[in-house]
Amino acid sequence: MATAARFLLRGSRTNNAQSCLGTSLLKLSPSCSSQVKTQRRHAHFTYHPDPVPTNYGPTTKMNLFQSVTSALDNTLASDPTAVIFGEDVAFGGVFRCTVGLRDKYGKDRVFNTPLCEQGIVGFGIGAAVAGATSIAEIQFADYIYPAFDQIVNEAAKYRYRSGNLFDCGKLTIRAPWGCVGHGSLYHSQSPEAFFAHCPGIKVVIPRGPVQCKGLLLSCIADDNPCIFFEPKILYRAAVEQVPVESYTIPLSQAEVIEEGSDVTLVAWGTQVQVMREVVTMANEKLGVSCELIDLQTILPWDSETICKSVVKTGRLLISHEAPVTGGFAAEISSTVQEECFLNLEAPIARVCGYDTPFPHIFEPFYIPDKWKCFEAVKKMINY
Fold first, then answer.
1. What are phi and psi of 283, to 5 degrees?
2. Measured CA angle at 292 (ends 301, 238), to 5 deg
């Protein structure tokens, strides 16, 4: 009975998401249109595209989900061992990230799985150990928890426990991540900190389409199992000129997006877009110069770039959507305090989600928006 109830509840989750997000890229039903309007009304950032890359060949306009599709298409075309699997991926997926790939490459390479995250990741581990480039999709990051044991106790430790005789390094796990404007407690979570405590895997979160494709291809090519979280609110909101051919962006390297001298701002995923606006606000309203850094890889993270910036600015603000207690901002804060204590001009600040389940109608009060981050900058400057 419990299993049947779980299936009905999860099936409802899948069907609702598909009906509003996956049925058409051009037309929306009235109910779906209202949801999109709600999302825009509650949007806590304005997306600012990165400059057009010039070192990877021809580009074309893509939103974030299309950049994922492009990366997967490049991989399937160049690697005959590559397989993509998960709930509904053969139909294009809830967010349309795999649309057209089954028809192009066949049902043996792009296929659906049962509604069982533990089984999806377990199968992915086995396929990777057998030599396949294994790309698993967890339909929402919120539902990665049933696969936690497979990821933490099997995938992350496979190489170590065999003394490097065997490994599942060709496993990449993709999952939509973060708040979306109306996702509530089961479709808005940011679970990266859970996996940051586990040696043996890499955890990566992009801020936009160009980074998304390059970092995803890097994860797929990496010799370690990787978890790739995709900010779902950016799937359609983020549009950039993205290279058509394959390219990679190095993992475990943070990127300094805006240089500054007074405060270091660190974020990842959607929150980078929030921080872009904080940089402008701080400059216009306070005359404060902020240095903005996109962490990009959560594990193993680039402490050198962060510490180098803090030595210069003397102040650090870290922001993420996940709850503040035990969030990855705490790890960054601790490391910077140990390495840069004598350089700090003010206490390190964290602007994060609250220690509650992610709310629905109160989402605008929960998320760490630009005003909360701006107030933290003002407090540090006046310390």
1. -70, -45
2. 90
DSSP 159-194: HHHTTTSS--TTEEEEEEES--SS-GGGS----HHH
- Asked if 190 and 359 count as a contact pair (C-beta separation under 8 A), the reply is no
pTM above threshold 0.85? yes
Neighbours of 360 (CB within 10 A): 13
pLDDT tens by residue, 39-70: 344 478 999 999 999 999 999 999 999 999 99
Quote the crossing angle between the two packed helices 209-221 and 64-78, to the nearest 10°.
30
**Among 87, 117, 277, 321, which one carries the catalytic annotation?**
117
Verify whether residue 117 is a known catalytic residue. Answer: yes
**In Å, what is the CA distance from 283 to each residue of 261, 276, 369, 380?**
11, 11, 17, 14
> Residue type at 36?
V
* Residue in 187, 277, 291, 320 annotated catalytic: 187
Give pLDDT tens digits for 309-337: 999 999 999 999 999 999 999 999 999 99
DSSP state of 89: G
* Residue 192 falls in the annotated catalytic set: no
